[in-house]
Design a protein that fits this description.
The complex is a heterodimer. By secondary structure, chain A is α+β, with helices and mostly antiparallel strands. Chain A contains 18 helices and 21 strands. In chain A, strand 1 and strand 2 form a beta hairpin. The N and C termini of chain A lie far apart (about 55 Å). Chain B is α/β, with parallel strands linked by helices. The chains are: A alpha+beta, B alpha/beta. At the A-B interface, helix 1, helix 6 and helix 9 of A face helix 3, helix 4 and helix 6 of B.
């Protein structure tokens, strides 16, 4: 994975001192909270309902064991002993003191981490496929490109005060696990007719109040032109994006209002001017950054592992976990391990300091010291020998990290909601916990099969509920929490916005409603192989609607 | 208000003129409206002229006239309105504007370095005393590492790396 050189480190160190001064000015009263707000936001510090919250960037969801241990250290010493992985592959600490923040950032910088641009109306952390570099279906590891984008976007002088926040995602595989179509810019690595690799560029995807799927404005962008093209998009957006209304300020509104074709024209025109500028990426620079992401030194292993097969035969619990949480690896004899942060009845994405240390140890021992965070608020050990899976599982199980529910109904995605977040209209976590408990029984989850439930506590849609197979949006109606259900959304290569199925449901009704939806699906599916989403696409919303609201 | 140029407080000899009424003698700053309406009269005067653009007035509208202006002032109505960063870079890097580019409005120390990187060379700031001015000047030196190539001439990380690679190659 990427290692800072002296320049990268120096920038982060300078940024911390700059922020320390800003915090001191706030503490001394020189800055009002209002004046401090945009400054702290630019460095990932939010003021939530009860305390400041610090969001730390995990660039494209890749971290090493030392970094994970540092998170554990911060959770122990500056927080209440835990952290929370977010839907954008970052980690949040919910209880730091303002006065401690510069020191926390210094601790992070010792392991090459920072909180730069994890908030604010600027270019945020670029996200990607959690299986990058390990998955058999990928054309190329997308992470060097994410790193190139990270550097270009870090403290960009022109694009630090955009109309609104700006998020990018990159996928290197045709099976899109990075949800690129619902980002401000989505990049998909693909081949042209000559077999060269480049990018398909999508713009204007996003959720929130006005959910939209991104539009392709460039079918094939040569790699070396990536930064000039991105700069052209951002420059058009910075000048012409709406600033009169916060809810219409994302790039998707601009693209929608002037049309994707016209937008593409403006970008093209701007791009022609800067294509051959210093933004043109020299091959040596691409090579130098790519060299950080060369595959780890895999052992040559046989296709079949008898010790692994033996354990699967002997231990049913292990077998269940393998079936659900372990994925195929491109390297023979290796596997991808999904670590569930969704224990039954737990808080999605939360992890204790002790669990962090265990994950770090396992990474060191069994996965080349590398860990991934996922959009689904879980973790991944990307390169584990099949022979080592049993040992990994035993340890994970001991620490409550082996819930065999990856991709199943209890692998819920939920935002912090009204328990923490100042923007939320409703609670998300207690609802997630109740749904998790309702469906906690393992055989039942297996019977139901793959289905994705996403719960957002407000229309900002942090969990991407619009593109959940079952999406749940919390709304506030005259001081009461209500939940609106959408069905049939998806965030993959066939991304689609789900349909609102009917009137909002009360806190008391909503878990029953999810069960009704699931039972309806079980009753009408053609076979066990037909997933919830497949069945929904075949029969449409009517049977589900009728089951929920009665025939009308 | 103080005008800072080349890291010094300088006397602001430019008078801001309303959209109506007589034109005073000396160097004047006018709005885009006034420039558009009174272009001939403004050019017939003896003194120098500058134009002040609001954040929703794109410099595209004055590209033909750049050579007439000794000052272009770009307004930040709130420091969170970042349009003028793009305007500044385009004026400097694409359209070759060489004279004073002044940041006016909500110009704060925490953004001044970004502004400078985008091509601003003059800043209207609140700096009531020498100490305040010094703090403001120091703020420009808080960062010394830059990833993005702009027209400001600062070395980028990419160019420094390239130089290192060449040195390695030569040795």
């Amino acid at each position: 994975m990427y290692k800072y050189d002296d320049y990268d480190q120096q920038l982060v160190d300078e940024r911390i001192e700059q922020f320390r001064d800003q915090v001191n000015r706030r503490l001394s009263g020189e800055l009002s909270e209002e004046e401090f707000r945009p400054l702290r936001l630019m460095n990932g510090v939010y003021l939530q309902l009860h305390a400041y919250m610090l969001r730390v960037a995990i660039p494209y969801g890749t971290m090493n064991s030392a970094q994970m241990r540092q998170f554990a250290y911060i959770a122990r010493n500056y927080d209440k002993g835990y952290g929370h992985f977010t839907t954008r592959q970052n980690i949040q600490f919910n209880w730091p003191k303002l006065v401690d923040l510069p020191d926390i950032l210094t601790e992070l910088s010792k392991v090459q981490m920072h909180a730069i641009q994890t908030s604010g109306n600027c270019i945020r952390n670029t996200t990607t496929d959690q299986y990058a570099g390990a998955s058999f279906d990928e054309l190329e590891d997308p992470r060097p490109w994410c790193e190139i984008i990270r550097q270009w976007s870090t403290m960009h002088p022109e694009f630090t005060y955009l109309p609104r926040k700006f998020k990018m995602a990159v996928t290197g595989a045709p099976n899109d696990r990075a949800a690129v179509a619902i980002h401000d810019i989505g990049l998909r690595i693909r081949r042209d007719e000559q077999g060269e690799l480049g990018f398909e560029v999508m713009v204007g995807g996003g959720l929130g109040r006005t959910p939209m799927i991104g539009k392709t404005i460039c079918e094939f962008l040569p790699k070396e032109d990536l930064l000039s093209y991105l700069e052209a998009i951002l420059r058009v957006y910075n000048q012409f994006g709406r600033r009169d209304n916060k809810y219409k300020a994302r790039i998707k509104i601009l693209v929608h209002e002037i049309g994707a074709e016209k937008f593409a024209e403006l970008v093209e025109k701007e791009w022609e001017e800067i294509r051959d500028s210093a933004l043109h990426l020299p091959a040596e620079e691409i090579e130098e950054i790519s060299a950080h992401f060369t595959p780890p030194p895999f052992d040559v292993l046989p296709a079949l592992s008898s010790s692994f097969s033996e354990k699967v035969g002997q231990d049913e619990k292990f077998a269940y976990w393998v079936q659900n949480n372990v994925r195929e690896h491109k390297q023979q004899g290796y596997a991808i391990v999904n670590i569930s942060l969704k224990p039954i009845g737990g808080i999605p994405g939360d992890i204790s300091h002790a669990q962090m240390d265990v994950v770090a140890d396992l990474a060191d021992q069994f996965s080349f010291g590398e860990i991934r965070s996922t959009h689904e608020q879980n973790l991944v050990l990307a390169h584990v020998k099949r022979d080592d899976l049993y040992a990994v599982w035993l340890k994970l199980d001991e620490y409550g990290l082996a819930t065999p529910n990856s991709g199943l109904i209890t692998d819920l995605i939920a935002c912090p909601g009204l328990d923490y977040c100042a923007l939320a209209n409703s609670r998300s976590i207690p609802l997630a916990q109740r749904i998790s408990e309702r469906f906690g029984e393992l055989d039942r989850q297996h019977e139901i099969g793959k289905v994705q439930v996403k719960i957002s506590g407000c229309i900002n849609a942090c969990t991407h509920h619009h593109v959940g197979h079952i999406g749940i949006l919390g709304v506030d109606k005259k001081g009461q929490e209500f939940y609106q259900i959408t069905l049939g959304g998806r965030a993959d290569e066939n991304a689609k916005i789900g349909k609102i199925v009917g009137a909002g449901l009360s806190t008391d009704e909503v878990v029953d409603a999810v069960e009704t939806l699931i039972n309806t699906y079980l009753g009408l599916r053609e076979s066990k192989e037909e997933t919830f989403l497949d069945a929904f696409n075949r029969v449409g919303e009517t049977p589900f609607k009728e089951a929920l609201y009665g025939a009308r | 208000m103080a005008l800072v140029k080349n890291n010094l407080v300088v006397k602001d000899s430019w008078v801001k003129v309303d959209d109506e009424g007589d034109l005073p003698a000396g160097d004047i700053l006018v709005s885009l409206t006034r420039w558009t309406e009174d272009r001939d009269a403004l050019l017939a005067r003896k003194g120098q002229v500058g134009v002040c653009l609001k954040s929703d007035e794109n410099p595209e509208q004055i590209l033909q006239d750049l050579s007439f202006f000794q000052v272009i002032a770009l307004e930040f109505p709130a420091f969170t309105d970042g349009r003028a960063y793009s305007y500044a870079r385009l004026l400097r890097e694409r359209h070759g504007y060489k004279d004073e580019l002044r940041a006016v409005g909500n110009v704060l120390r925490d953004q001044v370095l970004l502004m400078h990187r985008c091509g601003f060379d003059a800043f209207e700031i609140k700096a009531p005393d020498e100490k305040a001015l010094q703090i403001w000047l120091d703020a420009q030196k808080e960062m010394t590492t830059f990833y993005q190539p702009t027209g400001d001439g600062r070395k980028t990380v990419m160019s420094l790396r390239q130089r290192k690679r060449m040195a390695r190659g030569a040795s």
